[in-house]
Design goal:
This protein is α+β, with helices and mostly antiparallel strands. It has 3 domains: 68 residues, no CATH class; 220 residues, Aminopeptidase (3-Layer(aba) Sandwich), CATH 3.40.630; 71 residues, OB fold (Dihydrolipoamide Acetyltransferase, E2P), CATH 2.40.50. The chain is built from 10 helices and 19 strands. The strands form 3 sheets. Strands 3, 4, 5, 6, 7, 8, 9, 10, 11, 12, 14, 17 and 19 form a 13-stranded mixed beta sheet that branches. Strands 16-15-13-18 form a 4-stranded antiparallel beta sheet, with no helix packed on it. Strand 1 and strand 2 form a beta hairpin. The radius of gyration is 29 Å and the shape is globular.
């Protein structure tokens, strides 16, 4: 039996409803607990006069019991919904492989691009993974495959959409570029009436990317360059900065991104997006792949999409700036440092040896920092970008505390880093 104090409170609440206010304000009656807004099953505007009189005539005890019973009813848990993608529908707890046909090839020779989708049994965010936007970057293809096929839909909260080979035409030719020699990652969000690259970008963005809440676009270094596993992200955007903290074992490089990049277009569309770089092109590198897979699974765990007992690594550094060091002479490059090495200003990084005269030209670091990318030993010409160094600004401020214009002034215009690691 409810006490008279609670019954009185219940009567006050009911009076608010009968008077037609629609919602009852929380009432405090000599220390009695506050009540939340009443469920609409007891409301007002649609309640008949007969029902109002019936409720008004009820005893306080009956009213109290009725109200408390309503208030204590469990709120239904949200349910996962079917995923509609590219004309197909995937029920919760399922996996499907579907085809994306951007309709940019000769009709009789059109080859669809595979898309992998997992719809979890429980509701949650939608994570998208893209790889091989540059057709010669292979590590990301394997990262997407391993992540998607490692997921049990019955244990997933949310959805994962993976496009392992975005640029399938470049992949088949072992080329970074599309058949028209354009870089797909400089054409987002695309246009339905533009070039081949613009049309392909538009189709991917409108049909797949707009389904995403979060996006990881996976790349490697360009031809004959390799990258330390890392994230590139605009840390001036709080949601993006917070997103990077969910990954494990990844160095983070602040980069606002350039016009036409997928992650830039995604962020502009309200999707939290980063670029992951791992290894070098035209190679399958087990260590880089394993680092990428582990980091994405750690992200999914931190986002509440999966529940696993994962061993987290020591936090990796975050660099506000980066710059390429270029060689001054042509010849054969021989490096003295490795990916991930910490270096000091003036430290010897390698030599460029003239194969005819035997002259050796040292390449030294222009600042303190860490090797986050580098060229493999090869024949180089004067001006070749050989070593990519991540470093901190002299102000010692966090990137998110500085405007983008300030950060970018630390990097010369001809060395601004692009996703996919093709230094200009």
């Amino acid at each position: 039996m409810m006490t008279m104090k609670h019954s009185s409170t219940a009567l006050l609440l009911l009076t608010c409803l009968v008077m037609g206010t629609g919602q009852a304000e929380p009432v405090v009656d000599d220390g009695a607990p506050r009540f939340p807004t009443l469920p609409m099953t007891l409301t007002t505007a649609e309640t008949s006069d007969t029902a109002k009189r019936s409720l008004a005539d009820a005893s306080p005890e009956v009213l109290a019991d009725e109200l408390v019973g309503q208030l204590l009813q469990p709120v239904p848990a949200p349910q996962a919904e079917p995923l509609s993608l590219l004309g197909a529908t995937l029920a919760p707890g399922g996996f499907m492989r579907i085809d994306w046909s951007p309709d940019v090839a000769i009709a009789g020779l059109n080859q669809p691009t595979p898309v992998l989708a997992v719809n979890g049994r429980e509701p949650g965010p939608t994570l998208c993974l893209t790889a091989a936007i540059h057709g010669d970057e292979l590590n990301g293809i394997e990262i997407v495959r391993r992540v998607v096929y490692d997921i049990d839909p019955e244990e997933l909260s949310g959805r994962v959409i993976g496009v392992p080979i975005v640029n399938i035409q470049g992949f088949e030719r072992g080329s970074r570029y599309l058949p028209d020699r354009r870089d797909l990652n400089r054409n987002f969000p695309g246009s339905p009436d533009g070039s081949l690259a613009a049309r392909l970008a538009y189709s991917l963005f409108e049909n797949i990317i707009r389904h995403c809440d979060m996006l990881v676009d996976i790349h490697t270094g360009s031809l004959n360059r390799t990258n330390l596993p890392q994230l590139r992200a605009d840390l001036n955007i709080p949601a993006v900065a917070a997103f990077t903290r969910g990954f494990d074992n990844m160095t983070v490089i602040h980069s606002t991104g350039g016009a036409g990049m997928l992650r830039t277009a995604a962020v502009d569309a309200g999707i939290v997006a980063v670029t992951m770089e791992a290894g070098e092109s035209l190679r399958i590198q087990q260590r880089s792949i394993a680092d990428g897979v582990h980091s994405i699974l750690a992200l999914m765990e931190n986002e509440g999409m999966i529940a696993r007992l994962m061993v987290m690594s020591k936090p990796r550094p975050v660099y506000a700036q980066s710059a390429w060091i270029r060689v001054s002479r042509g010849g054969i490059l021989f490096s003295k440092v490795e990916l991930g090495d910490e270096v000091l200003q003036g430290q010897l990084l390698g030599h460029v040896v003239d194969p005819i005269t035997n002259d050796q030209h040292p390449v030294t670091s222009t600042r303190d920092g860490r090797i986050i990318g580098m060229a493999v030993d090869q024949v180089v010409m004067a001006g070749f970008a050989a070593y990519h160094i991540g470093f901190q600004p002299e102000t010692n401020e966090r990137p998110s505390q500085q405007p983008s214009a300030v950060i970018e002034t630390f990097i010369a215009p001809d060395t601004v880093e692009q996703d996919g690691d093709y230094p200009l």
